[in-house]
Amino acid sequence: MRTELETHGDDRRDNMTLPLALLRTAVVLAFAALAVGFWRLQVVQYDKYHQLAENNHQRTLGLRAPRGVVFDRDMGVLIENRNSLNISLVREQVDDLESTISLLSEVSGVPVAALQSVMDRSRRAPAYQPIVLIPDATIGQVSAVAAHALEMPELVVQQLPARHYPATEVAAHLFGYVGEVSDSQLASPEFDGVRSGTVVGKSGIESIYNQLLMGQDGARHVVVDAIGREIDTIGETAPTEGRQLQLTLDYDLQAAAEAAFKAGGFDGAAVVLDPRSGEILSLVSLPAYDPNAFAMGIDSDTWSSLIQDGRRPLNNRALQNLYPPGSIFKIAMAVAALEEGIVSADFTVRCAGGGTFYDSWRNCHSTHGTVDLREALEKSCNTYFYTLGEMMEIDQIHKWATALGLGELSGIDLPYEVQGLVPSTAWKREARGEPWYPGETISVAIGQGQVTVTPLSLAVMMATVANGGTRVTPHLLKAVNDGDGWTQAQPPGPRSQVHLSPETLSAVTDGLWNVVNRAGTGGRGRIEGRDVIGKTGTAQVISLDGRAALGESNPEYFDHGWFVFAAPAHAPEIAGVVFGEHNEHASLSATIAKHVMETYFAKQKGRPLPVLPLPATPQGVPLVSVVAGTGN
Amino acid sequence: MLERRLYRHIDWLLLLAIGALCAIGVTMIYSTTYDPTTGSAGSEVSTQLLALGLGLVALVIMLSVDYRWLADAWLTIFLGLIALLSYVLLFGVVDGGARRWIGLEVFNLQPSEFARIVVALALATLFAGRRRGPQTASGWGWTALIVGAPFLLISQQPDLGAAVTLLPVTFGILVFAGLRLRYVAVLVMLAVLTAPVAWTYALEDYQKQRISSFLDPGQDPQGAGYQQIQAKITVGSGGPLGKGFLGGTQSQYNFLPVAHNDFIFSVLAEEQGFLGVVVALGLYLFVILRGLDAARLAKDRIGTFLVVGIMSGFAFQVIYNIAMSAGLAPVKGLTLPLMSAGGTSIIASLAAFGLVLNVRMRRFTN
């Protein structure tokens, strides 16, 4: 070739061989370098880039599991799920967040600030995860967004299961409410494996049985393109609905109790249970709230109005508040005195409208003359129980009050229960660093002084007296359905058990029967043929002197009225407590109890449930005048 | 014009390799523009096939005309190029913020793609007649004029990438024309020294962005660094054997922008793996070395210089684009000759190879 070229080439020069060789070498080296570069990426680092590519185009979208449906003891639906429409934003598809938010605000009527604050809160969420901007959107909002789909392609309408409480405010505190899991909850072991944004129970049954109710979220694995559009579904794990729960609650009794409170025109609490088992039939706290408001995240206005409300609607009065038991405590006193052998039921005291104890005169609210224990209970004679108090050690009272469940946690399956107090020498030493002064026992004897109880613990006391000494654990869970059928829940065993002698039981029962069925203060609880036993009590809000000084017109200072009850007297199957907040008259609480019991018995016989007459008197006006004093 | 005896001297092997690369290119364009919902590929495929047809015509024309005849007409051709580039600047089609195209019925003609050939032809002709090499005042002067005029016009479009490809063409020819080593050193030094100045004054912000994000792609993963990161993921996830035809997730789901164009090689790497990369690299290397053969075989200095200029530009563009497609070089709007979708690029590349074949074929003629 070369010779040919040299022969033919006219101006060819040999000095081109070197640059040509250099050029070729350079090219070959460059290609070798490229090959090495590709080798490193494609062979050496393949795993890393393979993973990166997978992450690029595969997304896992959570499918929210519906929470378990909750039934009452008759399998009526208490809590269920509904579909909610939610307007969500997929951040990775956002072009101009500001204009999207302002347009969304314009078409939906939701203020820009509210939308912006959702975005700020969700800053840490992955960019492909839809952020719910308008939870539980109205049809109008959804169609407005759909109409602007072209301008706001980053908005999607998601259908999510949301909690629904068909009874709205009825049994609100018992059911509780749900909300997004909080950071502090996430940190606790109970919420292991729960992702942020998950809806969990925040109070009531929803909270305490959250694990059962929660279900298992599903997931959909999808292929998306660079702008986040879903191209294909490559796998789906269906969500598993939470377990269904059957509660011991009797919705009819619950509704009857709440209706009776409404008819009475006052707030308060009530606990009704089966004294044989501890099954809660009804648990009321008023005022209530609508748990539906929390289902898809509560808006800040509703929330702040709830927490700023002076009536404290979120507070479960049945077990979160402490009140003096007043005369109800006389039941515990009677039991303690009889069981300790301090007196027999025939022991009599002469009431002259009061008496002198430890050198000071103590009032009774009436002059009862000579009364025995049965009559003292019936008439709620303070003088009689002052006398017992004078004869007894505080620790004897403490022992028996505790055995009946006072000053103790009931162990109910609801959160935030508080513990009342029945004082003892040990408590006084520990809490105050002082010895117990016998004079203090006099106040305790009529349920005042340091004694405090929750309404729930009084219901437990009544159940314990009614069943002869077994301190049952009040509970709400009856059965669980994990999808394969119902399994009865193991009922919690009794908290404690004491033997109450037949003499004690007969004396106390007789006294309490008299309260309702003879001249006693609980006449409004009487039901013909049902042998209702009961006891009224007054929880003073402020001292009589204080009240006199402030004037009596302010309902804030009205006394609370108690009524505890059980029926039928000799084989009780229903027991409980009604607490009327500032209702001033315990007899009004007895009216509520009567309505609940009538409903119970009507239902048992298959008769139509009783209907409450409309409130006969305007709210707050006393029906009967009662002598001011303690323990009516 | 094409005599029968010349026909025997056509480098069929080179043509075959070029054809193979073009075929791979069309396949990859098909794959990246394939839409699974309609089951068909985008219009880019037919455009590319049309361009290949036109390119083949251009190749035959460039093959048929004696390159010495073209050399004689270099000034006319050069002025024609300047006219076209000026026309683009004044009346061109604007797309993506740049004015680079002349609107035609089927596709937009991008005159800057032809600038390399014209500059190669002009410089080859110039230095073929200058025995003393480029290091004379008039040598430098002509070089500056021939390279500088189109360079300025193209960089004003702005298309710095295309303008820069004129430099390897020029440099290749200068070296072969007898540029002494110390001048080479001076040129290299000049480049190093002017780099900071160019950085400060000559580069647009988006160009600086590209370079700084190349040095640290993580600093702006959604912005300028995005393409580079995605390019690496695309290539790396292809693995040794690739994800298969139409199986590339990066390209199919548009994670890699302009995949059918500047990043066509990434798609090849993703779907055909390292194996496919080696085959394609081998073909390109063969085309370059085989093309350079023509420079050795050329009968005259014009032929040698012309081939060297064309092949230097080609080699530079291929190497740079492939490096960029694997995230190994800053992102720059440079197509991969013979494979990237782009009408003008294909036509110009095939026309250029027409000239290379021309030189080789006419090595025995007078």
Give an account of the 3D structure.
With 632 residues, chain A is α+β, with helices and mostly antiparallel strands. Chain A has three domains: 2-44; 60-245, Penicillin-binding protein 2a (Domain 2), CATH 3.90.1310; 251-292 and 321-480 and 487-605, DD-peptidase/beta-lactamase superfamily (Beta-lactamase). In chain A, strand 14 and strand 15 (360-363) form a beta hairpin. The longest helix of chain A has 28 residues, at 17-44. The termini of chain A are far apart. With 366 residues, chain B is an all-alpha fold. Chain B has one domain. In chain B, strands 1-2 form a two-stranded antiparallel sheet. In chain B, strand 1 (93-95) and strand 2 form a beta hairpin. The longest helix of chain B is centred in the last third of the chain and has 34 residues, at 264-297. Classes of the chains: A alpha+beta (632), B mainly alpha (366). Chains A and B meet through helix 1, helix 2 and helix 3 of A and helix 9, helix 12, helix 13, helix 14 and helix 15 of B.
